[in-house]
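[SOLVED] Need 3D model of a two-part complex

Original post:
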Amino acid sequence: MLKRTHTCGELSEIDTEQTVVLNGWVNKWRDHGGLIFIDLRDRFGVTQIVFDPSVNKEIYLTAKKLRSEFVVAVKGKVEMRPDDSFNPSISTGKIEILAREIEVLNESKTPPFEISDNIDINEELGLTYRYLSLRRQKLQQNLILRSRLYQSVREYLTKNSFVEIETPVLMKSTPEGARDFLVPSRNYKGKFYALPQSPQTYKQLLMVAGFDRYFQIVKCFRDEDLRRDRQPEFTQIDMEMSFVDENDVMTIADGLIRKIFKDIHGIDISTPIKKMSFQQAFETYGNDKPDLRFDMQIRKLNNLFKQTDFQVFKDVLSQNGHIAGLAIPDGSELPRNRIDRLVEEAKNYGANGLAYMKYQKNEFSAGISKFISDVEKKNIREAFPLKENDLLIMVAGKYEMVYSVLGQLRLDLGQELKLSDNSQIRFIWIVDFPLLEFSDEENRYVARHHPFTSPKPDQIDLLSEKPQEVLARAYDLVLNGNEIAGGSIRINTRKMQRKMFEALKISKEEAENKFGFLMKALDFGAPPHGGIAFGLDRLAMILAGGDSIRDVIAFPKTSSGLSLMDQAPSEVDNVQLRELHLKIL
Amino acid sequence: MLKRTHTCGELSEIDTEQTVVLNGWVNKWRDHGGLIFIDLRDRFGVTQIVFDPSVNKEIYLTAKKLRSEFVVAVKGKVEMRPDDSFNPSISTGKIEILAREIEVLNESKTPPFEISDNIDINEELGLTYRYLSLRRQKLQQNLILRSRLYQSVREYLTKNSFVEIETPVLMKSTPEGARDFLVPSRNYKGKFYALPQSPQTYKQLLMVAGFDRYFQIVKCFRDEDLRRDRQPEFTQIDMEMSFVDENDVMTIADGLIRKIFKDIHGIDISTPIKKMSFQQAFETYGNDKPDLRFDMQIRKLNNLFKQTDFQVFKDVLSQNGHIAGLAIPDGSELPRNRIDRLVEEAKNYGANGLAYMKYQKNEFSAGISKFISDVEKKNIREAFPLKENDLLIMVAGKYEMVYSVLGQLRLDLGQELKLSDNSQIRFIWIVDFPLLEFSDEENRYVARHHPFTSPKPDQIDLLSEKPQEVLARAYDLVLNGNEIAGGSIRINTRKMQRKMFEALKISKEEAENKFGFLMKALDFGAPPHGGIAFGLDRLAMILAGGDSIRDVIAFPKTSSGLSLMDQAPSEVDNVQLRELHLKIL
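Solution:
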C-alpha cells in the first residue's frame, strides 16, 4: 500500500515540487478536456489531483474508472494551479497533485446520497447509512468539536483537583423518577441489574469515602417514552464536591463554562453568572429556563386591577387568581386572523381566553379596551414601558396556568417575530427551587430534583406542615432557554434523609429496601457535599450550533429507541432467554 | 459551616502563626496529659490538632466527645511541634494546629474496621462497606493513579489526532464469542438490546465514516462465568486507525506506553518494544503471554533424540510428537518429595509424565539418566547452557500439551524459586498469531481474535484448504506475563469478510442477520484500517502495584457478579416485568 506522507488538508504553495502520497476518498471526479481531476478527501481536507494521459497513460486509464467514494492512494508532485483556478475556499486551493502512481485501495458502490453538506437527506435514510452521513463535513466537525469539549472539561476539572472515577453501569434498580432499563441476571434467577439513570448514589458514596472532588463523563439511561430529541442513552458531565455550599459548586461550574467557551469558541463568558430565583423566573418568563436572548417580560398585573369593573378579571382576583400580561412589539399590526390564532394558542396551552388591547398613538383600542378604566390604562402604561404599536396580551386565572401560558406564547412569538439575537449567549442560574411538587397522578409530593436534595436548613421544620413552601438547596444552569446543568447540596444525615422520605410518603421499608445502603453510609461520617451534572449532548449541540442532539451523537437512535443502522433492538435466541430464566409473554 | 482555608496535607513550618480552618475526618484521637490530640484526615493528608483546656475549655470538652471518623471543621493557629515530636513520615509532621474553634459537621458510628492500610480486612466485609474501604490511603492512591492514567492516555491520543467518540451502550446483540448481557425493550415486545462486549463494529464504522483516528475509554461487558479477578464490566482503551498496517498501530501503542510510564512513574520505556512470533513464544515460554522477568527458556529437543533408544521418547517421535525441556536452576537440590510433586503437577496440567535428570559436576544422574546415551547427554549440555546443580525436566507428547505444560511449570517454579525480579518491566509484542483455532466443542474453527481480523494477504488462498495454517494480522502487547492489549488489521471488503465467515462455518443468512449492516458498510469505500484495545483495569493494577483489578475499581463486584454493598442484582416489580413483556420461568 502506498502510505500517505501528508493528509488531504495539509499541502500548500510552500510544498510545490515535493513528491507526496495522499490517501483518501474520491469526493468529486471530472473529465476536463482530456485531463481527469479528482478532489481527494479525508477528514483533514480536500486536495485536487490531476491525471494527465501524457504523463502516464496507464494511471490515467485507472483514474478514468474511479467513481465517487472510491478509496485511493495517489503519489505525485505538488504543483501550483494556474492562477485562474485558485480555490480560495480551501487551504489547499492554490496547489494540485500531478499524479504519477495510483492504487485503488477499495471500491465503492454508488452511495444512496451525495456526501455533501448542501443536500437535505431524508432522516431515516441518513440514520440507516449513518456511516455515510458521518462523512459529511458538518457532522465530522461536530464530533471533532465534541471530542475537544471532553478534553476541555477534563483539563479544567483535573486542574481543580477533581478525581475521575468510573462508577458501575450494572447497578441496583431503584426506580424513583424515570423508568430503569433492566438487565436480567443469569447467575441470580429472577434478579436484575439496572442501568444508571445517573451515578447519583455512587457519587455521594465517593464523598463519604473521602474523595473530596469527583467527576466523570458518563453515559446515563432512561427508559422513557421519548419526547422529540431525547435519546434512551445520554451523556452527563457528573461532578460532586465535599465541604461546600451552593456557591462553591456554582463557582466551579462558572469556571468550567468559561474554560469551555474559551477553548471551543475563543469567547470570554463573564462570570460569576447571574442568579435568579425560581419564582422570579416563573413570574417573568413563565418557566424555569428563561431564554434571555430577548426581553418581552411578563408582568404581574394583580395590583393594577384590584378595583376593576371588568368582570372576568374581578372574578379571577376574587378567587385568589392571577392576572399577568406581556407586550408584543409591533403586535398591533398583526392581522386580525393572527390575533385570533393567538387566542386559540393560549387556549391550547390551557388558558380560558386571552385578553388583548392594541396600543397606538398613546391610546388603547380593540379587544377588552372598552372595559378598562382610564386609571387602569394609565397604570398599565407605567407598568410596562409600552411602545407605539405594541399589542398587550393578558391571561387571568390560576397562578401556574397564567405564567406558563404567557411563557409559552412569549417563546412562540419570540421565534415568530425573530426577536431573539441568536448570536447571543445568555446564561442564568436559577436558584431557590421548591423542594417538592405535588403529583396528581401519584397523589403525593415528589422530589422536584431528586430525594437526596437538601432543603434549606432553616425550612426543615416546615417539611411536615407546609411541604410546598420548602425551598431546596438546588440550582440549575440555563443557557439560551435550555437547562444545561442541574445540581444541589445533598442530604448528609440519615435523620434528614428519613424526614425527606417521609415527606415523599416512601415507607421506612421501601426506603430501607431501595436506599438502605446509602442511609447506612450516612451513618459513618458523611461530609457536607453537593454537586452538579451537565447534559453534555445538549451543551455540545449548542456549541456546534446544531438543531438536534442527534447532530452531535455518532450513532443516535430514533425517538422510539430504534437503531435504524443495525435494527437494534432485535430478537434473541431462545437459548439465551432460557439461560436468563425468562419467557416472553 | 467553618469552611476550610487549607487541606489536611498542605501546611508546613512556613505557615506557622497563620490562622487556618481545616475540614476532615478524625483519624486518631488521644488524650495525653490533659491535652487532646487528633489527627485530622482528608484525601490530601493528615494534620495534628491540639485541644488545650487552658486555651478554650468549651471546645476542649467538645473534642473530648469526638470519635474516629467524625467529620469536623477546626479553626486554629499553626504552631511548630516540639522538636521531639516531629513526624518525618508526613509532610505536615513538623506542625500542629492549636484549636480555637470546632464544629462537628457529622458524627459517625464506630466503623466495622479501622481505616488503616495496615489492617487485613475480610474481603466480604470490605466490599459491603466499600465506602469505608475506599477511605484507606492505598485504595485512594490507586484510584487517583487511575485518574491520572486516563488523562495521560487522552493527552497522548488527542495530540496524535485521535478523535474521542462515544459509541452506543444499547446495541445490537451479535453473540460470537462471549455471552452478551441483554436489555429487554419495552417499546418492541420480545426484542432486546445488548451491552457491548467491545465497540468493535462501531469503531470500524467510524473508519468507514472517515474519522481516520478514533479512541474511547469505554466500559465493556461480558456475561461470562467469572474466573478469578474478572468483572462483568470492564474498561478498555479502544483505538482504531485508517490507512495503516500492523507496524503503524504498534508504533502508536509503543508511544502510548512510553507516555503512560513516564507520566505515572517517571520511567523511560525503551521503544520500539520488541516483537516475538506466537510460535516462538509458545515454544520458548509455553504460552502467548510470556513473562520475561526471568529466563528459564523451554528448548525443543526433538532433534537431539532422533536416534534415541529411550522407548518413551522414541514412541512420541514416531507419532510426530514433541519433546521439550527446561532447566531449573539449583533444581538438583530440590528434595525428593518436591520433585515427586513436580511430576504430579505436570500430570495435573495434562502431561503423561515428567522426565528429569540432575546435572551435577558435569554429570547427569537420577531420573531417566540411565536411559540416555552419552551423545545425547553431550548434545543436551550444548543445547542448554546447563549450570551446576540444574535439574533438567522434560515432557514428551502432543505439541500443544508439551509446551503448555512446561510453560505452566516454568511460571510456578519461577514464582516458587523467586527467579523473577519483580521490579522489572518487561514488554513484548506477540505477532503472527494463527487466524483460527479449532473448537472441539463447536466442531468448527473459531476466530482466535474475532471474525473481523484480517488474514495475512499472501495466505488468503489457504483459508479454505488449510485454515489452521493461516496467520492473522494480529498483535498482542504483553507486560510481565499479562496480556494488556490486543488488536489487528481488519478485513475491509465484503468479499474477504464473507470468506472469513465461510471459514468459521457461519452461514450467509446468519452473517447477514448479525453483521449485514457492517458488510453493507464495507461496500461503500471502507479504508484499510486496524486498531488495538488496552485492558485499562489490568494496566492500572500493574501501575499501582496491586494484586487484583478490584484494587483499582471503585465499586467492584464479586466473582459471581454480586454487588455486596447494595445487593445488586435484585428483584423488581411485577409491573416493571409486565411492561417489558417478560415472565420469570
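Edit: Chain B touches chain A through 117 residues (CB under 8 Å).
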